[in-house]
Amino acid sequence: MQMNRIFVLGFFVWGFIVLTGCNKLEIDKTNQSNQGVIFSIAPGANLGNLKSTDTINCINSSADYATAVIDDSTYHIDVFYIGGMPYTNSLFLLAGYHTLKEFTLWNDNNTPNNVTDDVMLSASPHAGSNYAPYVVSPLNIPFTIESFKKVELPVEVICYEMDHFTDFGFTYFQIHQVVVREETFFGDLCIKSTADYVGSLYAGQSGGLKLDMPAIFKIEVYRNGTLQQTFSNETWKGEGQPLKVTYGDYLNQVDHFEFKLYVLLRKDAAFYYTYLYSWAFDDDQIIPQGNDGIVDFTVGNCNPSSDILLPSWLNLPATCNYKFSSNYAPGSKGGYVDATLSGFSNVYDITTGTYASYGADHTTSIPFGQTLAMAVYSSLYQNLLPTGLKNTKWAKINWIMNHLTLYPGYKWYDVQGAIWLMDTPAWNGQAFMGVPALSTMHWAQQMYNDALINGVNYNVPAGGTAALILLPSNQSNMVQIVFVKTGS
Length: 488
Hints:
Distance between the termini: 36 Å
Order of helices and strands: EHEEEEEEEEEEEEEEEEEEEEEHHHEE
Number of domains: 3
Oligomer: single chain
Number of strands: 24
């Protein structure tokens, strides 16, 4: 497996803190209560036979905050220095008996709002641990808070070394070694008309609106199903530089990553970041990329050399009214039946009017002469279809419709027959609702056979023909197909 680039090797995350949702934004910075505790921090003693004897230097100036587990609660407390020695801000606690169970010092790596790159400098060892002899008072440390009184509790720490974390006797926390990895992305957006993107962020690109433009997009990074961070190239409108995406990979566990791609596209009469595609991988696996180390993607057909080729985007209404003609087999438009589409405005890539239509399944009767409310889907993005419609047959059907010149003299029923051969359950070839038997057709079986070979991953070319899938809003089994021309 090819390795992707490593951005930073070996930063550490204090696992319990992350899991409980604590972060440095929750540090107690301003509490001026008249009761509580201040921790005064000193290096451990008797360090002569300890591997690291420079403990004084790991606490004397670089700690930004402390993490303390008191009783069963975790606190992040700012650190300040007097005479080169660290103290914590005052932490308010209720009067009574308490126990300090964990204590660590941290450097925030100059990113006070991001805990993932913080470095643990030192920690207090537990009684009975290998490092307990190097401090006078190992953890756990009991103390008492009295009403209207402040307590200064001395705490001893020893420089933290990752290889010896078990020597501290940690009971609440687990140390994880993390590699921060990096992937780089760049995209192209191919559109059919610049007029469609007037008023969008694309209009602000240096070259203005074009049929082929750098894509403006964002990527959501998920680790083990949880959103970690979102990266976007909106600031520079996709121009001039790729988008770098960084993510933390824990080395002592299997991490499953998913990168979700959202491209700024026209939907209805406005522009939205629209989910199109996901990359999924584990640990140090790499997303396929070219020799330049950049993952290139193209929406449409203007850059066929990209690493990822995504279909053209069709701006479609979510629903429409679909009126079946009374006459069928054939319809006057050259399909199985005529369908009049209405109930939507003129901002879409389809217009109101009458289209040649085909049945996607042969098991449901068509209510000729009636009008149904239909949900509208593009066959170009199978991953965006409802579960019941996800099927590789759509790419095969699109292949047939874009290669009809291979079948001279074909008839409407050849097309309908080839579509029904992809049906589930498969059509048995018998005459049905005005469609003749398969045995009397000239091209249907050949169309079907060719599509099985050539159409599995077929991408409709610019200006090609794509199926629109129409499903009754009541989710009945009757699925209809009309075909439209794609954009550039």
